[in-house]
Amino acid sequence: MAAARESAEPPPRGTRPRNRRALIIAAATELFHQHGYAQVGMGDVANAVNVRPSALYRHFENKPDLLIACVVEEMAPLRAELAESTAADITEIGRRLAAVAVGRSRLGALWQREARNLPEPAYARLRAEIVATANQLTEMIRARRPELDRRNAKLFALCTFSALCSISYRADELPRGRFEQVMGDVLVAVLHAQPAEHRPVPEAVPTRLHPASRRERLLRAAVTLFAERGYSAVSMEDIGAQAGISGPSVYHHFASKQQLLVAALARGAEWLRYDLYRAFESCTDPADGLRRLLGSYVEFVAKHSSHVDILVSEEHHLHGEERSYNKQSQREYVGEWVHLMLAVHPEISEAEARVRVHAVLTIANDVARTPRLRGQPAVLETVKRFCADVVLLGLEVGAP
Fold first, then answer.
1. Residue 18: which residues within 8 A CB-CB, separation 6 or more?
2. Binning pLDDT at 50, 70 and 90, where does residue 4 land?
3. Same domain, yes or no, for 337 and 227?
4. Total domain count for the chain?
5. End-to-end distance of the chain based on CA atoms, in angstroms?
6. Within a domain: 362
7. Cα separation of 288 and 398, whole Å?
8. What is the pLDDT of residues 29-49, one digit of tens each?
9. Residue-number span of the structural domain to which 37 is assigned
10. What angle do CA 373, 378, 382 make, to 5 degrees?
């Protein structure tokens, strides 16, 4: 597949190369990654490989079938590496996976961002493939760390894959060899993590009050529906119905669905900035600030998983200046983490710090977006532990 990506021109129309299926997958992977699944048609893929659309349907029944093939193809080298690592210890497994994943930078975006567009039967098929791979790593972890129960071994396996998926979102600034080493260090920290002890704490039952204004009701409805169904599948009428507001009244507050998406993303970004300011104001030094920021981020995304869903999966639907502004806001937020990391560890490069930060944020986001994970006892505390190792490089500082 890598060779197909590097090909400058598709085969001439009318020829039948033996690797046509691979060429189709390579072209579709690139198009889905660049433009989003909803914006790419089978005709676009056909044009990219210089064939008629009918030729695609000889290999793939429909577009969902093609997306599944793209994700499975991106994941195949990881599965192969796991199959070849039966004699490797836990550290070597992490480093081998890192070396393979650095060359598979589309997997995270295709699985985390685009797979949600699949109809339910197709999504179930793809999820079964993902789960099978995670289970493969889970059993390898349990064989090498028999003190872990299956629940924690599964958590470490899933977080390992989350870290690998973060490669889709990082700035490609490190040389290949150094990037493999840094990502290997990240995976080793996850795979060697110690589970936190569950300490039950009585919690007050929330009253779940919400603002009464129509604008806030519409915004809350949009966040819920965008997270559940995806931006493309939701209409302004759906949002109005969810909020209990019908007809033209919806447009008195938001002129379009695009405005609602902008407002939803801005709201999540504002909350994260306030959370960052609180961590800065209460810390004793940069290391303490980084640990506090990490802890509050994990707690925040677990409580506001719908906003995380939108941030990860729907941001690419923004247009023009709004999209540029949102990306700049994200870069600035990550930059604050990087600034703290460099204050704690001035010996590392900015690019390495960014790789580690993206890995930590992706792990936290994936746990937040998975209800069966975030609701398990001690999961959030466990995630905070090994993510702290990733950004603090094992430095011990007092817990806030």
1. none
2. very low
3. yes
4. 3
5. 47
6. yes
7. 7
8. 999 998 889 889 999 999 999
9. 2-60
10. 85
